[in-house]
Amino acid sequence: MKTRIKYTDEPLGDLRVVKDFLPAPEELILKEENIKVTMSLSKASVDFFKAEAKKSRTSYQAMIRRLLDMYASRHAAPLTRRSSGRAGRRRAA
Questions:
Q1: How much is the pLDDT for 85?
Q2: 31 in any annotated domain
Q3: In a domain, 12, yes or no
Q4: Is residue 16 part of a domain?
Q5: pTM of whole model > 0.85?
Q6: Which parts of the chain fold into alpha helices (H)?
Q7: Nearest-CA neighbor of 51 among 38, 68, 39, 64?
Q8: Rounded to whole angstroms, how far apart are CA atoms 59 and 66?
Q9: Rounded mean pLDDT of 54-78?
Q10: What's the sign of the alpha-carbon dihedral 72, 78, 81, 82?
């Protein structure tokens, strides 16, 4: 037999608004545009990622891709106006 909850009109106490921490639906889309590349990696690196991926039951290629994505986003230059590359050149008189 299930126990029924009896609701009353008692005060709820001190309430506070919690900032929305959930991502927007468009941020939940996991598929990003990918391009295929061919590169040579050391056997030791590939063996490491394969072993770690096996522990987590995931793809070693996905782990490497995620690592590269994290590195790129961390070290990406801020979007500023690019220099024309002429600042350090002297003009001939």
A1: 55
A2: no
A3: no
A4: no
A5: no
A6: 43-56, 60-75
A7: 64
A8: 11
A9: 88
A10: negative
